């Protein structure tokens, strides 16, 4: 017997509770900022950013304290806008070897909630085009960047 589609979607990590862009691109040496939106009720929960293609094996790079205070660790910072229900992660001084799958997530009892984001870092001198993606009914835009 097959699960109805709704039940299948609800069983996926973070599905419908937290969402981010499918992918983002940045230039080597620059910074990449990712916004992940979450549903109301998760405001005071700790949020995190981890790296790795597999949910169970990803390595947490930074996490919030459960407040709106920004937390920075190495080249990565995370902030939680609890009044508007989104978290923002910024990776600075990115390198091509930072290209990977990352997850923005919410810590909770039982299985955490998470959404995968493919981050691609292009070599210096690459022209990045503008891309639009929907974010909770709002259009998100990444800017055009060029570096020598």
From TrEMBL:
The name this protein goes by in its record: Ig-like domain-containing protein
Keywords from the named record: Membrane, Signal, Transmembrane
Pfam family, one: V-set
Keyword Signal in record: yes
Annotated signal sequence range: 1-17
Source domain of life: Eukaryota
Coiled-coil segments: none
Keyword Transmembrane: yes
The species this protein was found in: Felis catus
Localization: Membrane
Every Ig-like domain range: 4-120
